[in-house]
Amino acid sequence: MTTLVHATDTLTRDALTVLQPGFVGTTAPDWLLRRIGEGLSSVGLFGRNIVTPEQLTALTAQLRAERDDVLVAIDEEGGDVTRLEVKQGSSFPGNYALGSVDDVELTRAVARELGRRLAACGVDLNWAPSADVNSNAENPVIGVRSFGPDPDLVARHTVAYVDGLQGVGVAACTKHFPGHGDTNVDSHDALPRIDVDLTTLHARELVPFRAAVAAGTKAVMSAHILLSALDPDRPATLSPQILTGLLRQELGFEGLIVTDGMEMQAVAATYGIERGSVLAIAAGADAICVGGGLCDEDTVLRLRDALVTAVRTGELPEERLADAAARVRALAAWTQAHRARGGAETVPGAAVQEGTAPGADIGLVAARRALRVTRGERPYTPMTSAPYVASFTPVANFAVGDETPWGIAAELERLLPGTETGSYDEPATDAVLAAAGERRIVAVVRDAHRHPWMTEALDGLVAARPDTVVVEMGLNEAEPRGALHIATHGAARVCGRAAAEAVVGTGA
């Protein structure tokens, strides 16, 4: 790698400042600390970087020993997308569960407690909440990460979530602008295209983002989607019409614009990460998120040098890069000031209710409230002996990952010792019946409406064993079936615990 300019140059520092890279390991590598000293202002954390709260606290302290104002970012949505508890499952239900309850004070309290835990570990920028309106039930990447399909519901809960996080000094990054809900393609894999008119866009996708901007969200994350009504050629992340024209000028957003992961195929496959990063900054983005997949020093140097070269050749105005870097530093100053005060601010309208105070088990409270239980025609007899849990497992999308456990088997084992479980990726009705023997069956699915093979499996099990319990841990779109149908509205660990309580008759 050839360094194009000296590390002390303003241009190079600005190029480093706008990057939000990741790294491998549970301590900061030497190359990362060195680049922080040269101007790198943000670091992104992922599940691979976190083992315990104590370890995470030591890691963020190590980063800030280099520069006290470094932004430490994380993708911690709660629910299905967790980095803090990547090996255990989240202590907080996700957006879909909170939206199904539709109590904004509960949402604010959940976000506040999650933010408090992040802040206690030294994390001060959360790439959340998702403000996407999940208008397409076939969406493979948003789903339960959305508060729901109604724009006004999504808007009021997005505002509550932003208030909750920022009231304890953690900057919210509302995503995925201008809205990833009406897609049937995962932008990690390819470029989704949304062909809606401007009237629909303003009445649906933009409603939560307008509300978040008005509520003072510190950051907004762009989506790698092609919105043909605004820009038929470039995805939103690379579009001046969308980032500058719509978000900055029309919606009046003055905070930090962060890109979604630049190595995602929706951008990388067409433009490459270097050119994609240059085009994103030129379009109006202020920070380049990279590190979910590419997480080494070479990636940082490639992007730094691409930005410097673009300025030198006149492709990227130097003032635009300087403005982007200034916005990063402004957010870093806000979080640094909050840490210096050492406490939460009072959030208007955020009166603490019983059971929602910081430190309370608010995540489990919320998961229990989100549960929807439908009983079949026959009376349901709660389970008192260890059942057989059949988990029908879809392929996990990249945002969720496949290392975070889900389901209810572990929670049922705690309540009914001896519970056995099996995982299936095909109907396998006969195999489940054989494995279950005389045990009662609990069938666990995720987005059964999107997977015909799951529907086939459930129909076969319920026909053969009418006392089968069905637990839906994704979107609750399919018709209820089984002696007991439990919709958790998400697959967080606490959702599994709430469902297990309902199975044994102690919850619902």
Please describe what this structure looks like.
- This protein is 40% helix and 12% strand.
- With 508 residues, the protein is α/β, with parallel strands linked by helices.
- The protein has a six-stranded parallel β-sheet with strand order 2-3-4-5-7-9.
- Helix 3 links the parallel strand 2 and strand 3 (71-74).
- The termini are far apart.
Short description, anyone?
With 508 residues, the chain is of the alpha/beta class.
Provide the residue-averaged pLDDT. Answer: 90
Strand order of the largest sheet: 2-3-4-5-7-9
Strand content: 5-15%
Instruction: Give the low-confidence spans.
Output: 1-8, 344-359
Q: What kind of sheet is the major sheet?
A: 6 strands, parallel
Rg on CA atoms, Å: 23 Å
Span between termini = 61 Å
Q: What shape does the CA trace take?
A: globular
Overall number of strands: 16
H/I helix tally: 18
Q: What helical percentage do the residues reach?
A: 40-55%
Query: What structural class do helix, strand and pairing data support?
Result: alpha/beta
List the helices and strands and how they pair.
Elements: H1 10-17, E1 19-20, H2 30-38, E2 42-45, H3 53-66, E3 71-74, H4 95-101, H5 104-120, E4 125-126, H6 151-166, E5 171-177, E6 193-194, H7 198-203, H8 206-214, E7 219-222, E8 226-227, H9 240-250, E9 256-258, H10 265-271, H11 273-283, E10 288-289, H12 297-313, H13 318-341, H14 362-370, E11 372-375, E12 388-392, H15 409-415, E13 420-424, H16 429-436, E14 441-445, H17 452-464, E15 469-472, E16 484-487, H18 493-504
Parallel strand pairs: 1-10, 2-3, 3-4, 4-5, 5-7, 6-8, 7-9, 12-13, 12-14, 14-15, 15-16
Antiparallel strand pairs: 11-16
